[in-house]
Amino acid sequence: MAFKFVGAVLSVLTGKTVRDAQLKSNLLVEEAEEKKREIILEGRESASRIRSDAEEMAKERSRDLRDSEKRQQGRENSLDRRQTDVERREGSLSEQEVLTEGIRLEVESLKQNQIQQIEQSAGLTGDQARELVMFRAEDQARHELSKRYYELERDMKDRVDDEARRVITIAIQRLAADVVSERSVTKVTLPNDEMKGRLIGREGRNIRALEAATGVDLLIDDTPEIITISCFDPIRREVARVALEKLIEDGRIHPTRIEDMVVKSQNEVEEIIWRSGEQATFDAGVPGLKPELIKLLGRLKYRYSYGENILQHSVEVSRIAGLIAAEVGAKVTVAKAGGLLHDIGKAMTHEVQGSHVDIGGDIATRYGIDPEVHRAIVEHHEDDRGSMEALIVAAADAVSAARPGARKETMDMYIERLEALEDVATSFDGVEKAYAIQAGREVRIIVKPEEMNEYEAAALARDVVKKVQDELIYPGQIKVTVVRETRNVEIAR
Questions:
Q1: Does domain 411-483 sit in CATH 3.40.470.10?
Q2: Is residue 125 over pLDDT 80?
Q3: Which of 119, 129, 346, 387 is 20 to 30 A from 475, comparing alpha carbons?
Q4: Cα-Cα-Cα-Cα dihedral of 233, 237, 243, 249, to 10°?
């Protein structure tokens, strides 16, 4: 019985479980069906949207394609119109070319006829007329160029002259140097004529010994109480002079004594040379020079140019160059050193081949002088200078040489220089007369007014200056003045 009850309970429980499971299964099936329906519906909607979008895109592309076809058709129509226009213009141009060619031929014919008529009327061919026109044009251009150059030159001089005059005046007025009056000593005064015989000696042995020891020539003539020393070397001449004075003072004159006095005189002159060179460096304010350069400077004490002592001239140039450099803001030390050493080549020009400028450049190179000072030495006579200091040294050299009384020359050299200056001036066309005045420092040129206008006269002055610079050698500077004067004279009767 109990087993039957349990079986009944289990049967009931089992039936209930089965029903519940069946209900859950049915619910799950319904949910699945509902989910399936939703998915199908969403798929249909999505497919519909995709189909609609595709159709819209197809329509848009179709519209774009139609628009593109329309534009292409428009371009083709435009090209057709342009081609038609081009063809029409080509036809018109061809007609114009034919017409133009006809007109050109007609114009050329008329031109040739006119040229022939002009040539017949003028009596000139075309080439001759062309040359005449070119000549007149060239003459006019030259006239205008001369006029313009004259105006520019005058304007530049007005602005520059005052400043240049100020600088040079300041430099000159601050320097007070003595006028050089010293000359090479070539004569020795004797106490009496008996001394001539003693100097000559028995059979001329004394004079031969003196000449051999000093390297000079002694000229003994009838001039009372005077003996002349002749030698190209001023230092040898100075040694001979000192030796002669010592022998005359001593009174003992014989070959052995002569040799001793010459040796003493050489040592004395060498000492004088050294002291003179050293004093020059002190006076110029150029310290630190090598002993060899100081000795060469001292040798300049016995060198002269146009009667001017070269050593004093060098010191003067150094001072002027330093003053000018200070005024214009250049290198004072370089200018002073260049001024002191600018003529150093003259210390040995008779011993070495070449000009004193080239020799000075070699000396500067040999003793390691500063390159800027070297440039001032080698360029002080050049037209083109590479530095401000070289230009200043050249200007100071000209100022020193042009100072009144600084230089002297013989009458023959003076006359020859004046004649050469006048010859240069009269060598140009249109010059009537030329006069060298102011001791050759100015040339005044009288031109023919009917052959030369005022601008050509200005050009003539420049041409004369250039020729003077190229062909003549002169101290200082030369002023060229061209005078053009027209006079109209009538007489009332």
A1: no
A2: no
A3: 387
A4: -170
Q: Running DSSP on this structure, what letter comes out for residue 344?
A: G
Contact criterion met (CB below 8 Å) for 200 and 210: no
Q: Where are the domains of the chain?
A: 17-114, 182-270, 285-406, 411-483
Question: Quick check: do 182-270 and 285-406 share a fold?
Answer: no
Burial string for 218-237 (b: 16+ CB within 10 Å, else e) reads beeeeeeeebebebeebbbb
User: Does the domain spanning 285-406 belong to CATH 1.10.3210.10?
Assistant: yes
Closest by alpha carbon to 262, among 209, 220, 190, 310? 209
Tokens 């001017």 — which residue?
A: 308
- Fold of the domain spanning 182-270: Ribosomal Protein S8; Chain: A, domain 1 (3.30.1370)
Residue 272 has pLDDT above 70, yes or no: yes
From the number of C-beta atoms within 10 Å of its C-beta (0-12, 13-18, 19+), residue 122 rates as exposed
Burial letters for 278-304: b for 16+ Cβ neighbours within 10 Å, e otherwise?
bbbbebbebeebeeebbbbbbbbbbbb
Residue 385 has pLDDT above 70, yes or no: no
Q: Counting Cβ atoms within 10 Å, is residue 177 exposed (0-12), middle (13-18) or buried (19+)?
A: middle
Distance CA 363, CA 358 (A): 9
Per-residue pLDDT tens digits for 169-217: 666 555 544 433 344 446 788 888 788 888 888 888 888 888 888 888 8
Contact 338, 321 (CB under 8 A): yes
Edge-first strand listing for the sheet containing 226-230: 187-189, 226-230, 217-219
